[in-house]
Amino acid sequence: MTDGLDSGGATTARVRPGERADLPQLRRVQAATLAEPAPDLLRAAAADGPPALFVAEDPVPVGYAILVAGETAYLPELAVAPARQGEGVGTALLGALVRAVDEREGSPDRLRVTARAGDDRAKRFYQSRGFAVTERLPDFFESAAGVVMVREL
Length: 153
Fold this sequence. Notes:
Elements: E1 5-6, E2 9-10, E3 14-17, H1 23-33, H2 39-45, E4 52-57, E5 61-68, E6 73-80, H3 89-103, E7 110-116, H4 120-127, E8 132-137, E9 146-152
Parallel strand pairs: 6-7
Antiparallel strand pairs: 1-2, 3-4, 4-5, 5-6, 7-9, 8-9
């Protein structure tokens, strides 16, 4: 898998499949980044089966993305260490995830993500990468509404 580039600058992070050994560092990224982290989801993704885990490292993990494949592919979490945001790490992770979906036999034609309705930075990130808001979910998160965003693949 390869590096990515976004309007914030180039990243030197390499994207690769995740593994159990990444969990301690990824838990730190998750806790520092997400308002409502799901440690069980991260643990399941690192356990060698669906969902799939992608890790950006430079040289230690600085971000991750989780893919749940189905009729519509779902991205339940994408997190980048706060100090590395805006460097293209998230774009590299999203690119690796999209390539993985494209390589699957009978691959889904859409990728879906749910963002916090009030998280304008996350919404701008996904919108600038081809996602569109399709639905508002008033009680999706414990403490906030969510918006479903979809990208055609």
